[in-house]
Design brief:
This protein has one domain (9-90). The chain has 97 residues and is α+β, with helices and mostly antiparallel strands. The chain has two helices and four strands. The two termini are 22 Å apart. 26% of the residues are buried. The structure holds zinc ion (2 copies).
Length: 97
């Protein structure tokens, strides 16, 4: 799946959402089939990711989950992702629902 790297934004108010995986971090691990990365997904950020963040992009259908640090999860402006970041669908009916 080829994803755009630019024009991403956080989904406001997604912090209270829950899924069956227990956390969105675990949701990302369950459905990416990958190990949790050591760096945040946001371009230019090398903090340790601590959560699975809800993000969206005008050119991508549906909301996605990506590994992020606390600081980037507070960004109110648009941001870019590193190349090769794995996004998992946040839609529970397509994943753990
Ligand atoms: Zn889940
Ligand atoms: Zn970050």
């Amino acid at each position: 799946m080829n994803l755009p790297v630019d024009n991403w934004s956080n989904v406001n108010g997604s912090g209270e959402r829950k899924c069956r995986c227990g956390s969105w971090k675990q949701h990302w691990i369950n459905f990416s089939g990958k190990e949790w990365p050591s760096n945040c997904s946001v371009k230019g950020c090398y903090e340790r990711p601590v959560l699975g963040a809800h993000v969206r992009n005008p050119d991508v259908k549906g909301e996605k989950i990506i590994p992020m640090c606390c600081g980037c999860n507070q960004l109110e402006n648009k941001f870019s992702l590193k190349g090769g970041v794995t996004c998992v669908s946040a839609n529970m009916s397509e994943t753990c629902g």
